[in-house]
Write a structure and sequence with these properties.
Blueprint (H helix, E strand, L loop, with lengths): L12 H27 L3 E7 L5 H4 E7 L7 E10 L2 H8 L10 E2 L5 E7 L11 E4 L10 E5 L3 E4 L5 H5 L4 H11 L8 E4 L5 H12 L3 E6 L5 H11 L3 E4 L7 H5 L8 E4 L3 H9 L6 E4 L12 H5 L4 E4 L2 H7 L2 H16 L8 E5 L3 H8 L7 E5 L1
Parallel strand pairs: 9-10, 9-12, 10-11, 12-13, 13-14, 15-16
Antiparallel strand pairs: 1-2, 1-4, 3-5, 3-7, 3-16, 5-6, 6-8
Helix pairs in contact: 5-6
Length: about 375
Amino acid sequence: MWPQLGTVCSTNMLVCRRSLLAAALFKRRRGAAQANHVRHLSRCKALVYANHGDPSHVIQLENVDLPPVGPKDVLVKIMAAPINPSDINMIQGTYAILPDLPAVGGNEGVAQVVEVGGKVTSLQIGDWVIPRDSGLGTWRTAAVLDEDYLISVPGDIPLLAAATLGVNPCTAFRMLADFEDLEPGDSVIQNAANSGVGQAVIQIAAARGINTINVLRDRPEFTQLSDRLKALGASHVIKEDALRRPEMKELFKTCPKPKLALNAVGGKSATELLRHLQVGGSMVTYGGMSKQPVTVPVSALIFKDVKVCGFWVTQWKRQHSHGAFRVMLDELCALLRQGKLSAPACTEVALDDYRRALDAAVQPFTSAKQILTT
């Protein structure tokens, strides 16, 4: 599937109906205007790489031809697309799945439908959409895609939340739901707590009454970052070296030992998470930022009966139905509307200024996700 390159009415129902009708007409006209503006384009701007390597060296901004809109295709205008670690790994050639080259970078983002083919049934002009799977190449201004490659999201959620909805919040949601039967009052421990997944874990867990113990590498701005994570709902924020100190015993006097550990780092950090799991608990690895293997002590397997698992949201999407993905997105969008979930800290960068965004995305101790906007 790799592409080639309510108004509240308190007095008068008539006024309400007229207002809703006017809003609907405005949205339709605006969508039509956008369609008329974009459908005549034969080309778009795109960030393309013809070889694997350092993104700052191999990515180039190019004008790319747009194919005709087929019967089951839609023409979309890309509004915002993040730079995720998996995007960088894909360009470097180290990710588990790689597109044919040349390819357009980016696996996530939000777009608006501006033209539909004659046999399209699930989407209409004006809809906001996100990719159903990896590999669509979202770092561009427009694209022609099969409708089955996309899934709609509400147009009333924040733009940056929509742009970052399909990967990190979905990863957090599934890991909290699929590996342990977590109840209010239970605990989860995670490293890389300031990552996009980590911030989503904090918020989704808080909404369910689940404690989170959030581990960060030490850094100059640790206090400010800790305060920000606590504002999101983090129960505890600790430095990585605290995992090996007696103070953890004090923490567990007020917070139960975790049933679930979420590992995005590997190496010693993962081993320390395992040490604090409850008997019979699970550690789920979804990343390996340290590039070090996960070492599991024999005693943890024999005497604590811990389970060590992996999770990849791309695989989950491929193994589950469109309906299952829709149910998860609906729950996440409900949290967004309730103010219980928000986009990670983001920095918006124009597509033309992509080199600055790529450089920022690979810096150590990065706390803000780079979002390419068009």
